[in-house]
Amino acid sequence: MPSESIGGAPGTAVRPAVDGDCVAHFTRRITAAGASLVRTESFATIPEAVRAFLDELGFSYNLVCSGERAFDTIAWPAGFTLALRTAADGDHSSLTGVVAAVAETGSLVVAAAHHSPNTLHFLPENHIAVVRTSQVLRHLEDVWRLMREHSGMPRALTFITGPSRTADVEQTIQIGAHGPRRLHVVLVDA
């Protein structure tokens, strides 16, 4: 894979090239890692994207979700139940925002916060993450720059690349071993 040097001096970091549209690159990387993804035009169309995902799996419209301010503007149709709280045993689906997404690795970046507890992206078997196209960064280092410039370092920062998996037991892939069995990204043109 071609790479680009930062600063050009010996000993400087070398980043993999992320050619062209970094949103398209992110989309390819995260779906290759096993996540599903749907792109939508606005926050108003998020409920339909979530409904389609849950219908395909046969799950109810009961979501435990983070307290993203942007979610307050969404008109959820009848039948949806959204609980703003930490996830608990028995919660099947969570809905969260992200701090950023990384094209280089196809990763979501979530920060632990009062309005977005870590349990939301570890406990439920379905994690639905809303990502704005404007949140897609080219490289991992761009996340650290973003943290320093805008919000400072949170207590915990998690990088999520696809559904949870492990091959610890007899080298057999197990999906959902340490987190959600399914990761669904709703990519919003915003």
Strand and helix layout:
Blueprint: E1 3-5, E2 14-16, H1 22-32, E3 36-40, H2 46-57, E4 62-65, E5 81-84, E6 93-96, E7 100-102, E8 107-111, E9 126-132, E10 136-137, H3 140-151, E11 157-160, E12 165-166, E13 174-175, E14 182-188
Mind explaining what this structure looks like?
This protein is an alpha/beta fold. It has one domain (20-188): Rossmann fold (3-Layer(aba) Sandwich), CATH 3.40.50. It has helices at 22-32, 46-57, 140-151; strands at 3-5, 14-16, 36-40, 62-65, 81-84, 93-96, 100-102, 107-111, 126-132, 136-137, 157-160, 165-166, 174-175, 182-188. The protein has a six-stranded parallel β-sheet, sandwiched between helices. Strands 10-7-8-11 form a four-stranded mixed β-sheet. A two-stranded antiparallel sheet has the order 1-2. Strand 12 (165-166) and strand 13 (174-175) form a beta hairpin. The longest helix is centred in the N-terminal third of the chain and has 12 residues, at 46-57. The radius of gyration is 17 Å and the shape is globular. The relative contact order is 0.21. The model has no long low-confidence stretch (mean pLDDT 86).
Give a quick precis of the structure:
With 190 residues, this protein is an alpha/beta fold.
Number of strands: 14
Total number of distinct structural domains? 1
Rg: 17 Å
- Quaternary state of this entry equals single chain
User: Strand sequence of the main sheet, in spatial order?
Assistant: 3-14-9-6-4-5
Structural class comes to alpha/beta
One letter per element, helices H and strands E, the order comes to EEHEHEEEEEEEHEEEE
Average predicted confidence as pLDDT: 86
The appropriate CATH architecture is 3-Layer(aba) Sandwich
CATH fold name: Rossmann fold
Query: Globular, elongated, flat, extended or rod-shaped: what is the shape?
Result: globular
Q: Which percent bin holds the helix content?
A: 10-25%
Secondary structure tally, helices: 3
CATH class designation: Alpha Beta
The low-confidence runs, each spanning 5 or more residues with pLDDT under 50, are none
In CATH, the homologous superfamily goes by the name: NagB/RpiA/CoA transferase-like
Strand percentage: 25-35%
